[in-house]
Amino acid sequence: MNGTAIARAHPNIAFIKYWGNADERLRIPSNGSLSMNLDGLYTETRVTWFNDADRDRLILNGQPTTGPALDRVVRHVDQLRERLGLTGKVEVESRNNFPMGAGIASSASSFAALTVAAVSAAGLELPEHELSALARLGSGSASRSVPGGYVEWAAGGTHQSSFAFSIAGPDHWDIVDVVAVVSEVHKDVGSREGHAVASTSEFQRERVATATSRIDICRAALLDRDFSRLARVVEHDSDMMHAVMMTSTPPLFYWLPGSLELMSAVRRWRAEGLNVCYTLDAGPNVHCITTSEDADEVESRVRSLGCVHTTLRAGAGGPALVVG
Ligand code: PMV
Fold first, then answer.
1. Which candidate among 51, 140, 185, 283 keeps its CA 20 to 30 Å from the CA of 18?
2. CATH for 112
3. Where does the pLDDT of residue 185 fall: very low under 50, low under 70, confident under 90, or very high at 90 and above?
4. Whole domain around residue 247: which residue ranges?
């Protein structure tokens, strides 16, 4: 087996967040989540299987890479080898077209692209839900970068039943994510450690218990293209996740003064009539969710704030695809 394949996958922004695992090893989440793929931004990954190589290799953005990044790739490929009965070693060559530290996690697009490329390079064809479940083993949110457009990940309780699926294609609604970068500094506590301590917050139980109803509201708002309903549930869900983060042991504070300045500006702009709301992942940068109609105005207001270093902009993106 000496197959090779190239796959591309988009990162995604969660409207209803995944935080905490029911099963750490399998990354079965404590609650379901809902997201949008980010068009124009992608990871492109080439995987080549070798029968005669003695170890897996990683080339990241053109640089041969060892250490934790390679270890994580090897752990993921080990799972693929085990579950799909594959032998051989891989060379993985991966590149992002978006800057690191811009508030867009690359693990979702990276593990989605790696999974889709590795499976195709091995000569296998798997249904989308199986690719999504496999991508989940590398990074939970990667399961949501496999299907296209607006995507729901139902928590499930087993490896096979915990996968993401599209609830609407990218053309369903022209939602735009304007990312306001307030800091490029790499976060010291990543999501993997964060998930592991989520249950130490007494708020996590309540957040998990009420997640299904927020997913129902968010799904309905998306399907009805009802922005004000979407805005309320998206901000509330982000605030709830950050309340859990701040009250876990150790406490995780991702917000910076600039994040708070943006959050209150976004609420003010919405009160003035703009279609805009905020959501923050495990970092200080603020994703300003808007529509294509209001995106120019939102981006120019965001850029006028002194705390904002730069902005990035993306609409709804398609599924992970084999491109070569
Ligand atoms: O997939 P992970 O382990 O990087 O976790 C993602 C966690 C958040 O980005 C904070 C929320 C989410 O649902 O994407």
1. 185
2. 3.30.230.10
3. confident
4. 175-314
